[in-house]
Design goal:
Chain lengths: 123, 97, 325
C-alpha cells in the first residue's frame, strides 16, 4: 500500500465511524432536538471525512489501472462539488426542519414528543 | 484496498439501518423527515464508495444528483406542510376557497 | 461476494420500509418513507450496474415525485380513513399474485448468468459488439435508446406528452384567483436555493449532452431541469415561477419536443433513408455517414429533454396553483 492509500483509508474509515456514531445518536437520543444534533454530525463531519478520503484515494490511482490525469481530475472535481452541495444543503434543511418543529411546539423534554400537534395517532 | 472499501460500505449500510429504525419508529413526523434527510446523505456516500468498490468511479454522477435533489424534497416538505396553522388564518383560508 | 452481501442487505431494507409504509395511516409519513424506498432502490440499481436507471430514479424519485405528492397532500387530507371491515378477499388476491410471481422466478435465469437467453440473443450481441463502430458513441445505452430503438423512445416521449395533455385537460387552465398555499418565506432557504439553482441547471445540461459518454440523457436531464424550476417555486412561490416561465410557453414546449423528435425522423425520410435512420443526416449523395448518428441522437435527446421538462413543469403548475378544495 502506498502512503496515499493509507492516508485515504484512514480518512474514509474514520468518516464511516463518524457516520455510525451519528446513526447511533439518531436512534438513542431522547428527543427531537437532540436527534437533529446527532443527524448533523454525519451530514457534515462524516460526509466531509469520507469525501476527503475518496479524494486522497483518487489521487493514488495510477495510469496502470486505467486512470489518466484528466479522469482523476474529473473525479476529484465531482467529489469536491458533492462536498460543497452537501455542505450547503444539509445545514439549510436542518435549519428549516428545526424551525418548523419549534413552531409546531416540540420541546426538549422526551415527553414533549407526545404533545406534538402532528403526532401520528393523535387527532 | 478492497477490504477498506468493503468495511466502509458496510459501515455506511449499518448507519443507514439506524436511520431506517428512526424513520420507522417516528414518533413525530419531524423524526421521519430527519431520518430521510440523513438517509439521503448516507446514500450519496454509499454510491460513492460502491463506485470505488466496483472500480467505476463514474457512478459519482448519481451521487451528485442525489446531493442536489434531496434538498428539493426537504424544502417541499417545509413549504407545503406549514405545521403551525393558526386557527384564525385557517378560517380565513377556508373563506377564500 | 461482498456485492452479494450488500445486495441482500439492501433488499432487506426494502422489505422493511415497504412494510412500514403499508402500516402507516399517516399519508404524509408514507410519502416521506417512500422517499427512502426510492433511495434504496437507486442503490440497488447502482449495484446491479443499471446506471442510467439509477439516474432516473435519483432525479424522479428523490426530488420531483416527493414534491408532487406533497402538493397533492396539501390539497387533500393527509390521513387515510380507517378500513370499514377487515378485507379478506384483497389479502387472498395479493397472496395469490405474490405466490404466482415467486413461483415464476423459478424459471428466471440467475442474476448475471452468461447462459441466460437474453445474453445469447443475436440482437443483444449485435448491440454490444457493433454499436461503437456503427455510431461512434461509447455509451451503448444511449445508442440503443435513441438509435436502435428510436421508435420505442418516440413512443415513450409521446406517452409523456399525452400524460401532460391529460393533466391539462383534467385540471383546466391555471386560475389566477386561487388562494396559494401559505409561504414559509425563509430567507435562509431562499439564499441556499439561489446558490443551488444555477448548478442544478448546469448539471442538467451536462447530463443532457454528456449522455453519449456517461450515464444520463434526455429523460434525466429534463426532470432535473424541471426540478430547478420547482425549487424556485418552492422557495418563492409558484406564481413567481410562472413569471419566469409562463405556462403558455411551457405548454407549447411539451408539444415542441415531440415535434422535434418526429421532425428528425421525417427529415431522414427526405434525405432518402428510413424513418429515424440518422446515418443519412450528413450524407451527400449515396454513401451514409455514421457521424450523422451523433447529430441525430443529439437532436432526438434534446426533443426528449424538452418534452419531459415541460411536462414535469406543467404538472407542477397545475397542482401547485390549485386552491384547496
Amino acid at each position: 500500500m502506498s502512503i496515499l492509500e493509507i492516508i485515504g483509508s484512514v480518512f474514509l474509515l474514520s468518516g464511516t465511524l463518524v457516520c455510525i456514531i451519528g446513526g447511533i445518536g439518531i436512534v438513542r437520543f431522547p428527543n427531537f432536538f437532540a436527534r437533529i444534533h446527532a443527524a448533523s454530525v454525519p451530514d457534515t463531519l462524516g460526509a466531509g471525512l469520507c469525501l476527503l478520503g475518496m479524494v486522497v484515494l483518487t489521487c493514488g490511482l495510477s495510469p496502470e489501472q486505467g486512470y489518466d490525469a484528466k479522469l482523476i481530475a474529473l473525479i476529484i472535481v465531482k467529489l469536491v462539488s458533492i462536498g460543497i452541495f452537501i455542505f450547503v444543503t444539509s445545514p439549510i434543511s436542518g435549519h428549516a426542519l428545526a424551525k418548523s418543529a419549534y413552531r409546531d411546539g416540540l420541546g426538549v423534554e422526551p415527553e414533549d414528543d407526545a404533545k406534538s400537534q402532528t403526532q401520528e395517532g393523535a387527532s | 484496498m478492497e477490504i477498506v472499501y468493503s468495511i466502509s460500505a458496510f459501515g455506511i449500510l449499518f448507519s443507514m439501518m439506524l436511520a431506517l429504525i428512526r424513520a420507522a419508529q417516528g414518533p413525530t413526523v419531524f423524526d421521519r423527515i430527519l431520518a430521510v434527510n440523513m438517509f439521503g446523505t448516507m446514500t450519496v456516500l454509499f454510491i460513492g464508495v460502491v463506485g470505488y468498490l466496483t472500480n467505476r468511479p463514474d457512478f459519482l454522477d448519481i451521487a451528485l444528483v442525489y446531493a442536489l435533489m434531496n434538498f428539493i424534497a426537504i424544502i417541499a416538505v417545509l413549504r407545503y406542510r406549514d405545521f403551525s396553522v393558526d386557527p384564525a388564518e385557517e378560517a380565513e383560508n377556508h373563506e377564500h376557497s | 461476494m461482498i456485492i452479494h452481501g450488500i445486495t441482500i442487505i439492501l433488499f432487506l431494507f426494502l422489505y422493511v420500509i415497504a412494510i412500514v409504509i403499508g402500516r402507516s395511516r399517516n399519508l404524509f409519513a408514507a410519502v416521506m418513507l417512500s422517499g427512502i424506498f426510492s433511495l434504496i432502490s437507486a442503490c440497488l440499481f447502482v449495484i446491479m450496474d443499471a446506471v442510467d436507471v439509477a439516474f432516473t430514479e435519483a432525479a424522479v424519485g428523490a426530488g420531483v415525485s416527493t414534491v408532487l405528492m406533497m402538493i397533492v397532500l396539501n390539497l387533500t387530507s393527509d390521513r387515510e380513513s380507517p378500513p370499514v371491515q377487515p378485507k379478506v378477499f384483497p389479502l387472498l388476491v395479493a397472496l395469490l399474485t405474490g405466490g404466482v410471481l415467486i413461483y415464476a422466478t423459478k424459471d428466471m435465469p440467475a442474476f448475471g448468468d452468461p447462459e441466460a437467453l437474453i445474453h445469447q440473443s443475436q440482437t443483444t450481441n449485435h448491440y454490444l459488439w457493433h454499436s461503437f463502430e456503427e455510431s461512434h458513441i461509447p455509451n451503448v445505452v444511449t445508442t440503443v435508446l435513441a438509435s436502435y430503438r428510436g421508435y420505442d423512445t418516440l413512443g415513450e416521449t409521446t406517452v409523456v406528452f399525452t400524460a401532460a395533455v391529460a393533466v391539462m385537460l383534467l385540471l383546466g387552465h391555471v386560475r389566477e384567483s386561487e388562494t396559494p398555499p401559505k409561504l414559509i418565506n425563509d430567507p435562509i432557504a431562499l439564499v441556499g436555493a439561489k446558490m443551488l439553482i444555477p448548478y442544478i441547471l448546469l448539471f442538467a445540461l451536462y447530463v443532457q449532452f454528456h449522455g453519449d459518454f456517461g450515464p444520463g440523457g434526455g429523460f434525466q436531464a429534463g426532470v432535473m431541469f424541471a426540478a430547478a424550476f420547482v425549487l424556485h417555486g418552492m422557495v418563492l412561490s409558484p406564481k413567481h415561477t410562472l413569471k419566469a416561465a409562463p405556462a403558455l410557453i411551457i405548454e407549447k414546449l411539451v408539444a415542441l419536443g415531440v415535434l422535434l423528435y418526429a421532425a428528425v425522423g421525417i427529415y431522414c425520410l427526405f434525405k432518402g433513408g428510413n424513418f429515424l435512420e440518422y446515418d443519412v443526416l450528413l450524407s451527400h449523395g449515396e454513401k451514409p455517414n455514421p457521424h450523422g448518428q451523433h447529430i441525430g441522437i443529439l437532436l432526438v435527446e434534446a426533443g426528449v429533454g424538452l418534452t419531459v421538462f415541460a411536462a414535469m413543469l406543467t404538472l407542477f403548475y397545475k397542482f401547485a396553483l390549485r386552491g384547496k378544495a
